[in-house]
Amino acid sequence: MNRLIPVDSDNAVPAPFRNTPIHKLLGWHNGFLDHDEHVTTPELLVGMCMDNRKKLRIPENFAFILRSGGANMRPSEFKVSFAVAVGGVRTLALIVHNFCGMVGLSGRRAEFVAGLVDAGWDRELAEQHFDAYAPLFEIGNEIDFVLSEATRLRARYPKVLVAPLFYNVEDNRLYAITET
Q1: Edge-to-edge, what's the strand order for the sheet holding 161-168?
Q2: CB atoms inside a 10 Å sphere around CB 69
Q3: What value, to the nearest 5°, has the Cα angle with vertex 34 and ends 31 and 36?
Q4: Does residue 180 register a pLDDT over 90?
Q5: Residue 99 CB: number of other CB atoms within 10 A?
Q6: What pTM value is reported for the model?
Q7: Which of 3, 27, 163, 169 would suit a FRET pair with 15, their CA atoms being 20 to 30 Å apart?
């Protein structure tokens, strides 16, 4: 957590994100900018985890939002491309959070399989399903993952500003991440 940068004022927004849609996202969500702006077209794409504990405080129409376990955009890359190519967005916020279920996923195999069996799956098919997909969705450490995903997406979309961010579910605030 020592790589997190609290963002509670305009001056705290990291320089690469000042006066961009990331600045607005941080300001509106963290409460140091008013929501009085009327937004008619999306200014950014937000890729964030499917976790139900996270809700962004932003105006309607401000962002396309893709939710995927761990904010992993690899399985959603065509949707990212659509938002960039057709939606015209040139800014992407990747938001991970603490206590993510995709961290340590491989250690939850028994729980996952049992849950599917309880929902009517055949045990062997549930095991095969987990074994086939868990490696794609396991993210390891949240911060390391979002930094590597930001690097990957920057290479893929070189004219798109990509911001790795962290959502703390304990205080419901967004944090910037030190990139080294």
Answers
A1: 4-6, 173-177, 161-168, 91-97, 44-48, 63-67
A2: 18
A3: 145
A4: no
A5: 11
A6: 0.93
A7: 169
